[in-house]
Every structure is written in C-alpha cells, then in structure tokens.
Design goal:
Elements: E1 4-6, H1 7-14, H2 18-27, E2 36-38, H3 39-45, H4 56-67, H5 80-117, H6 122-139, H7 146-157, E3 158-164, E4 169-173, H8 178-184, E5 202-207, E6 210-212, H9 222-226, E7 229-231, E8 235-237, E9 241-244, E10 257-269, E11 272-278, E12 292-295, E13 298-301, E14 311-317, E15 330-337, E16 350-355, H10 359-372, E17 378-383, H11 390-399, E18 403-408, E19 421-425, H12 428-440, E20 448-449
Parallel strand pairs: 3-9, 16-17, 16-19, 17-18, 19-20
Antiparallel strand pairs: 1-2, 3-4, 5-7, 5-9, 6-8, 10-11, 10-15, 11-14, 12-13, 12-15
Helix pairs in contact: 1-2, 4-11, 5-6, 5-7
Bound molecules: FE2/S2 (inorganic) cluster.
FE2/S2 (inorganic) cluster binds at residues 191-194, 196-201, 218, 231, 233.
C-alpha cells in the first residue's frame, strides 16, 4: 500500500475542500484507515484529477487570494535554513525506504535460491518461477507517480501543523509564522500584539522543530524554555509540528479592543461605500468572522476575514456620515462584539441569505468558511436589487466547486434549504420576514442565525 495521508494533506493534494473528502469517507466512496487515506484510494475515488500542470491546489489557492482581495503573491519559499531542514528530512526518509527496499529484495532473492535448492516438485518450481518473474517485473522502471511526486513537493514547501487539544490542523507556507498561517487557515489562535511583546501567543511545541524568524522582546522563564514554549507570532515551523496552544472558540474569548485606525481607501460601489481601514502594525484587531465594531457613533459589521487582521473592510450606506470619510483620516475603533459567527461544530453545510449591506458580515463569514476549507457545500442567496460586489460572488462560484451563488428577486423564491444552517443578514424588516418564511419552509428555529 502507498503512504497514508491525513485528510487535510489529501484534500490539499487534489485541490478539494477537506469537507468533500470527509463526505466521501462517510459515504464509503473513499477508503480510510484510522482517519488517514492512501494515495491509491485517493486516486481511485478521484480518477479525473489532473496533477501535472497548474496543480489544482495552486489554482484554488491563487483564486482564494484574489477573491479575498489580497495582493496576489507568488508562492514564497521558506528561507534557506527551513528549506534545507525539510530537504534533509525528506532525504532521510528516502534513505530509509531504500534500505528497506534493498533488504526486501535480498530476502526475495534468497527465497528463490532456497526454493531452487529444494528437491524438484511442480508446485515449488512454479513458485520459484513466479517469484523470479515478479522480481523482474518489479525492477522495470516506470515513470514516477505524479501524485506521489506532488506530495513530496508539498512537504518541502509547507509544514503541517496540528493543534492540541483541539486537534485542528493547518499548513504553514513560505515565511509565515505559525500565527499568520493559522489566521490564514481560519483558526483563532490566542494572540495580542503580533510583535513579540505581550506573550499572549505563547504555545508549547509537543513534537517537531520550529525556528525563530522574527525578533521578540518577550522573555521566557527557564522553566518555560525547558518545556519547549515558543511565541507563535515569532516562530515558523521547520518540520511538521504538533503544538499545544490556546484558541478562541466563542466571541467571549476575544477581548474588547480600542484601536486608532487610518482610512486606507474609500470606494463607491453602487449605493454603498467600501471603506478600508488599517490598524497600526503592532495593534491589530483580533475578531471572529461576522462580528461588528463601533466606529464613531455607530456599529458596523466587519466585511473582511480575520485572516487579515490589519486591513479591515466595511460597507457603509451612501447616506451615512461615515461614507464621507477621507483617505488618511484617523478613526477610533472599539470592539469587536456580536454572536453572528460561524457554528462550525453542527456538521451541517451553511447557507447565507442576504439583502443590501447585510452582505458585509456574510462576506466575512464566507471568506472565513473558505479559509477553514471544511465545507462540502456553501450556498449564498442575495435578495432584492442592491447586489453590490456581485462580480466577486460570481468569481467565487466560478472558482470553487463547493460554492453556489443565486440572485433572487424575493425571499419566496428560495429553494428547499431545510437541511442547512441558515445565516440571514439584512435590514430589520428583512430579518423578520425571512425568519417567518424559513420556519414555514421547515427550517427549525435553532438553525436560523441572525446578527
Ligand atoms: S502576540 Fe504578543 S507576543 Fe505574540
């Protein structure tokens, strides 16, 4: 049997969400062994996947970055020291395989000799001939398996991180610190300053090797050092690692913050102003997708993903005073707050129903759901006329197999979504109408979430 992979590694290898693989295992379409899958069974379940040019995972990663409105960066390689440590690890594994292979080969050759030395009997002669033939066949050089090669490449450019005690997993790429990579993957690790001062991102390395890639002023005690503590905002993974770290699982786990931000950009999108704020480098906003903050006198939902905690996006109605904000202006931000966050533990697929600027928190939730990569299907319905950023929604639909986008003139046209978790966002009267209609359509109240 070929090597076994975790579901997240396998999903990344063939460019599908981890949720899709979980569903395949559940349906019996993909064989798993203790939660792991083999490359052989992966190939059997996804025979149509192409791995040679423009690997799907790279395409999806690029689209995700474009869709999230981030600067499209090249796939950054880790620094030399990290790369050479990973190459060394791969070489060691390869040497180990070779040694075993040579031993097995010698055993087979010995067995054939021993069989031939036995008194001649038809069954023994046949067995010796068969072994001879199989050995010759095995030595015929075949072109290397693309999927195996790609898996080896992935191990060099990225490291797999497992969090304890939650068991959540993610990949750290390029020069990302453990914290940056976790945020990109939609995980809410505990942190504060992001710059090595506060110590709130402290974590213990259970196994694997990490390296300090950013300076930090925080001083560890001798006991902490001996126990393997590191700062996730200053350390990167050299090899695959398991770390023990605190995570925020509920809105109550996130402290309220007061930050002076600067207006970085103002853009008009139909009858909405898109306001981009930037926090100081050392005082970023920690929040959960779907939450809001107070800017000046009013509360606004954050429209961007917590994976970019420095650049915050808001959708402001044109008749609102804040729509007149100027580039470079300072704005005090207070928050975050609100419980309109993704319920990740229900096991159901999410569906979002939106009207007008209700799209803002939903955009944050959808980007977070994409980053988490655990859903087999995400559905977005936009109701009514004010459908700014609809091109972005179409780009998501074009790029991601697990995302569907539908525009509807009114709520009554919604299809059957009674098996999903339903997140509704929009003006007060829209929320009331939607709640009534969804209950009539068989969605239990406990599965309807509103801001
Ligand atoms: S977040 Fe403050 S030291 Fe890492």
């Amino acid at each position: 049997m070929s090597q076994l992979l975790t579901l997240s590694r396998a999903a990344r290898l063939i460019g599908v969400p981890r949720g899709t693989l979980q569903q395949c295992v559940k349906d019996g379409r993909l064989e798993s062994f203790d939660g792991m899958v083999s490359i052989e069974s992966l190939r059997a379940a996804f025979p149509e996947s192409q791995f040679e040019e423009d690997p799907v995972f790279e395409r999806i990663a690029k689209i995700k970055e474009e869709a999230f409105g981030k600067r499209v960066r090249e796939r950054v390689l880790p620094d030399r020291e990290v790369l050479s440590a990973r190459l060394y690890e791969q070489s060691r594994e390869l040497a180990d395989f070779r040694l075993h292979l040579e031993r097995y080969h010698a055993i087979i050759v010995d067995t054939i000799e021993k069989l031939k030395a036995l008194p001649s009997r038809p069954e023994i002669d046949d067995l010796a001939k068969w072994l001879d033939h199989e050995l010759e066949e095995a030595l015929v050089t075949e072109s290397p398996d693309e999927l195996d090669a790609l898996e080896g490449y992935l191990r060099i450019v990225s490291a797999h991180v497992t969090l304890r005690p939650s068991g959540r997993e993610y990949f750290a790429e390029g020069n990302d610190t453990l914290l940056e990579a976790a945020l990109r993957a939609g995980l809410a690790l505990n942190y504060g300053c992001s710059s090595g001062n506060c110590g709130l991102c402290k974590a213990r390395v259970v196994s694997g090797e990490t390296k300090r890639v950013r300076h930090h002023d925080y001083v560890f005690s001798e006991t902490e050092k001996s126990m393997g503590y590191i700062l996730t905002c200053s350390h990167a993974a050299v090899t695959d690692v398991v770390i023990e770290a605190l995570e925020a699982n509920r809105p109550e786990d996130i402290p309220v913050q007061e930050i002076e931000t600067k207006v970085r950009a103002v853009e008009t999108l139909g009858n909405v102003t898109r306001l981009m704020l930037q926090t100081p480098r050392t005082s970023r906003l920690r929040f959960l997708a779907g939450q809001s903050v107070t800017l000046g006198e009013r509360d606004y939902p954050i429209a961007s993903c917590p994976c970019d905690d420095r650049n915050l996006e808001f959708h402001i109605p044109l008749d609102d005073a804040l729509a007149g904000a100027q580039r470079g202006q300072s704005l005090m931000l207070h928050g975050p707050f609100g419980n309109f966050v993704l319920r990740e533990d229900t096991g159901r697929q999410p569906c979002f129903i939106v009207s007008g600027t209700g799209f803002a928190p939903v955009k944050s939730l959808i980007e977070h759901a994409m980053a988490l990569d655990v859903y087999a299907s995400i559905a977005l319905f936009r109701i009514g006329e004010n459908r700014y950023l609809s091109n972005l929604c179409r780009a998501w639909e074009d790029a991601l197999d697990n995302f569907s986008y539908v525009e509807l003139s009114d709520l009554a046209r919604l299809p059957d979504i009674s098996d999903r978790d339903v997140y509704v966002s929009g003006p007060e009267d829209f929320l009331e109408n939607a709640s009534v209609l969804l209950r009539e359509k068989g969605v239990p109240e406990s599965r309807i979430f509103i801001p």
